[in-house]
Structures are given as structure tokens and as C-alpha cells.
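Summary for the steering committee. The consortium agreed at its last meeting that each partner would contribute one worked example illustrating the joint modelling workflow. Our contribution is presented below. We chose a case with several input lines so that the handling of multiple components could be demonstrated. No manual editing was applied between input and output; the record is shown as generated.
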Amino acid sequence: MGEVREMSNSTTSLRLADVAEAAGVSLATASRSLRGLTGVSDEVAARVRKVAEDMGYVVNTHAQSLAGGATSIAGLIVHQIDDPYFTEIAAGVVHAAEERGLIVQVAHSGRDPQRELRQLRSLAAQRARAIIVAGSGYVDAHLEAEARRLLATYERNGGRAAVIGRHQLGVDALLPDNRGAALAVARHLVELGHTDVTILSGPETLTTVQDRLGGAVQVFAEEGVRHHVVATDFTAAGAGPAAVQALQAWPETTAVLALNDSMAIATLVALRRSGISVPGDVSVAGFDDVAVAELLFPSLTTARLPLAEMGREALDLATRPAASRPRRKTVAAQLMRRESTAPPRSDGPLRVRTASAS
Amino acid sequence: MGEVREMSNSTTSLRLADVAEAAGVSLATASRSLRGLTGVSDEVAARVRKVAEDMGYVVNTHAQSLAGGATSIAGLIVHQIDDPYFTEIAAGVVHAAEERGLIVQVAHSGRDPQRELRQLRSLAAQRARAIIVAGSGYVDAHLEAEARRLLATYERNGGRAAVIGRHQLGVDALLPDNRGAALAVARHLVELGHTDVTILSGPETLTTVQDRLGGAVQVFAEEGVRHHVVATDFTAAGAGPAAVQALQAWPETTAVLALNDSMAIATLVALRRSGISVPGDVSVAGFDDVAVAELLFPSLTTARLPLAEMGREALDLATRPAASRPRRKTVAAQLMRRESTAPPRSDGPLRVRTASAS
DNA sequence: GTGAAAGCGCTAACAA
DNA sequence: TTGTTAGCGCTTTCAC
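What follows is the complete predicted structure of the assembly.
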């Protein structure tokens, strides 16, 4: 007699066994048919497929994976899901994943190392076929150690990982040349004749911040450019007010260099709203070249990183067999000279209107 | 005697049994300890956790899920992953998911109904706990039928689904008031005194396009405003050139109404580059109020939809038990009057410079 | 070409 | 408090 669950309208899904029974074949034959393997007559295979289709059967990937197969999941961990830097990388990853029949799980760490570890564990627990970690690492080697260990175990168990912008994780890495980018942007400002630059920086616990800041400061020091460093949270949120405040504190500023585009854009907008002209009164430059950078008015001078291609390439690395030792590829940045930078005013630096002070 | 796999340096992960053995307890005790269930002495539980930690054990969620548990996966299907409309929704979903300990799988359909079905099947196959489908549906009821059927099966098997902007799917729905949004924006243009409007539209196979277009056309017809409809692909890519071309074809145009912000922004930029002033020569308005809309110069007049909140709310719906019949909630749009719209030139409509013709 | 049966790693009765 | 054991739904030998 039939199954206990026959006629059940409960919460249980159809199993392959149900399909097999309905098609009058064995479990093995049903499995082979549905996966298009050889060793089944075309006739039988077609019938099984039709029955499955008609019944609305959907395979259970967990059973599938447990029984031996690999999953088709790629994991992506980003710092902040709503930051264009990461959405553009994510788009690249998702597109590349799709071409390989992988589906992408997106997790975000909010720049919290502990949460990042949790996400990593979760992806490992799901036996994701590939894991990509994007975004700056932490200067504190201690914080990186546990992630490194997790990834090592993960790869030892057959997983593959690639990182974007993380140096210490012991897996294939795509490394944006943050220092080189900073050199290029800083030199650009120097060449324009700027002599007083405010740098909008982020937490120096992040390697990206260190690299970019280091490069910029080096150039300014060498060239005798006076500069102030203002620490913010590395996001758009705090950058606008910070920029306006900095211009009040150091009215001799002729240019603002934000260490990422989100902050640069926030600065652009904040200055506009304060009646400060860019680049007339003050020049503004950023890093990354997110998509909107060139759409703004004035369009943003920035050091371009090919974000979507980086995402694509990271997935590429992570779906290729591991090399004998981790691959490391440096990604060059390209200076995009646009409208937001120009020579400083010939009649001296801007004096911020005190009217806009709080 | 030990296990065959002991000392193995192969590709096989540690199993719970390995941990149990190492800790000198049974499988059940190990399982209980690791999941923090009661019925284990604190001492034993702590020891097991430590052993697992030291060994680098990571649970296999597939085995876990097969054995009875629910997954902690939420699926999100969007049309286009790199469109800000969807990234903002995605951010809302991811944040809300995180609060519930869910991880989000993002799939994108590229506005291809077939691919959407594949993604839906994949999510169902993974026994995702919740599925969210975001983005316009298809006017052709036939195309919606299969998705509807899949979702019905999925929910019958214990899954939960919610959709954003899809009317026909038979599950909980968040429905942006696209028609109302169009009425508001169109009326705004009428009130400003515009008499000749070019509408940048999308494929009329999409319900969102139909709703927005219908609303706008109704207002213009009622108010005696002349209007042309230009069909594009509903993305930024085609909108810029289309807008410029339209202004050449219909030089009496005093305002461009794009049916989404991506197109409106592309229009803004294209006009600027063609030397056409906004709103001086031509007004521009859009739909959605993506984050950059207010950062542009001129800032964009648009009908605001609370995208991130919609994502959050959709996940909310999809993690709540199903109601006896699908919930439907209309989301109101709010007109954001900004700088890109103004009364038409008093000295008559713009005559496009023929110099910018190809 | 097809079928029977042994796992995959875990959870959840049920026993002790 | 702890242990034993029967599945969960599938893939995959190994027989036939």
C-alpha cells in the first residue's frame, strides 16, 4: 500500500520518491532522469521529467548536498551593503556568479570584525562553494588572525575563497593599489597649485585608510603642502558636516581630499548648500569612482577603481582551483580628472562666511 | 577503534561525531551542547564547545536542515542588481534579515521571466525560509501564472513569500501607488505651467510602466497638455540619448517626465552635456527618489517611494505567519519638489541647437 | 537500462 | 543528565 503521507495536505514537500512512484520507476532512475545523466532510456527520462514537472516537484538541495554534491552557493561579505563601493562590487560578483550557475549570498559586516566572523562561519557551515570578502581589512593583525584561520579551514575542506583589499587573509587576493591611488590624487592637487589641503579620513584601524592617508601625506610632506587630517567614520553620513566645519576651522584650505567617494560626494553637496563654490572656492577629490561620481555637477575628480570588474574577477579567482600558494593581484587605480578640481583662487584662499557658522 | 577517517588530511570536514568522540560524549549530547539546549550540565556543555572550537568544527547546515530544522535563508529576487532602486530595497531587506538572524540570497532576473522562475525554483529547492520578489510584474497574466503557481507550492510547503510591486502573485504584497505617484508628478508639471511634455517610458509589458504612464497621460489629457511618449528600456543606458533626441524631434517640449529616476538622472546629465539648462530650458522629473536624486545639481524633483523601508517591511511580512488571505498594503508616494522643475521659459520653448545633432 | 541499498551529518524521539 | 537510534531526501555504488 501507498505511503503514510499520501493525500497529505500538510506542510511536507514532495520527495523524489513520490515522483519515482508516480512515474513507476525506482529512486535511482528518477534521480538520473531529473539530472539528465546517461544510463536511462530517453523515453523513461522524459516521462519522469514530465511527471515531476506536473507534480510541481522541487529538489531539496540540502539532501542533494548532503548526499555528496557540492552546493551552488557563492558567499559575499561586504562592510556596508548600501555603500555604492560595495554595491558595485556586488553587481560584478552577482553577474559573474550567474554565468557559472551560482547564486550569491550577500552578508554584511557593518565593519564589525566579530560579525564578519559570524558571517564567515555561516557561509562555511552552508558549504558555500566560494567565499568572497570585500573591503578594507584591519590594521590590528589580531583581528585578522581568526578570519584567516577560518578561511584556512574552509579551504582545507574544499572551499575556495578570494578577497578584495585584504592583505592578511592567506587566500587569493585582489589588492587595489590604494597607496598609488593616493599618490596620484595628491600629486594632481599639488600640480594644480594647492597649498592647504584638508584630508577627510576614516578610522586608522582600517588598512585602506592607512594606505590612502599614508600616500597622500607623503606627497604633501614632500611638496611642502600644508595639510590637516580630519577623522570621520569613512561614510557619507559624517563627512558633510565635518567638511564644512573643517573649512571654518582652517579657512586657508584650498582643497578637500576625501579618502573615498561617498565622503567626497557628501562634501560636494554640503559645500554647495553652504554656498561654497566647487571648484571655484575649494577643490574636492575622492577615491573609487563610484558610478555617480561622473554624474554629479561638478563631476568628481577621483582615483578610479574598476569596482564591478573587481567583483567579477574575485569570483573568477574563487571559482578557479587553488594555486600552490595564494595568488595576489594588484589592481591599479586611474586618476579621473574632472570638474571638481581646479587651480586655487588667484585672489587667495576662501574665507568662509561666518554666516554659515552655527 | 577509531574512525577510518582519523588522521585524514583529505577534503572531508569534521563531523559532529568527531567532536563528540574527542569530547568523550555522545552525538546527542554534543548536539545539545553546541546548540545551547537545556538538559546538559554546564560543565559538559562548556567542554564540548571548547573542543569544537579548538578543532575548528563548523556545523553542516544541510545536514541540520535535512534533519528537521528550518534554514535561515531569505531569498531576494530583483530585476537588476546594479539599479539603485533595487540596491536600496536590498539594503532594507538585508538589514531587517540580519536582525532576525537570517542571511539573504540575492538573485537577479534581468527582467527575464524565465530566469525569474529559475531563481524562484532555486530558492524553493534550498528551502529558503522566506522569499521576496521585488520589482514590476508583467502585464501578460500568462507570464505571472507560473510564478504564482511556484509560490503557491512553496507556501503550501511551509515557506513564506512577500512581493514588492507585483499584483498577481497571490502572496503578501507591498504595492507602491504608481498611478498616484504619476498623478502627483504630472499635476506638479501642469501647475508649473508646462504645456508640452515628453514622457520617457519603458516597455509597456511591465505593470509599473503601465501604471505610471497611465496616470501621467490621464492628467495631461485632462489638462490639455500635449505629450509625446518615448519608449526606452526603462534603464539609464538608453534614456540619455533618447531624451536628447526627443528634444530635437519636439523642440516645443518644456518638460521631460522620466518614469523612473535612473532615466531621469541620465536625462539630467545628457541635457547638461548638450548645453541645455535644467530647469532653465527644460524641466526634468522622475519617480522613486533614489538616494542620489537629492544630491544632484539641480536636485531632482521626483515621486518618492521609501525604498529601504519597503525592503524592510517586505521581509517583515515574509517572516510573519501567513494571514488567512494574502495581505496587500499600498505604499503611498510623496512628491519631492526640488530644483529640476520650474515654470517654463516665459520667452517660449527651447529650440534645440542643431549643432548637437549627429 | 534499471533497481536495491548504503550512506551523507545531523536532530529528535525514546530509553536508560 | 546522558546515550541510542531512526530517519530527513538524496546520490551512488553495486547487482541484475
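The first helix of chain A runs from residue 16 to 23. The longest strand of chain A covers residues 73-78.
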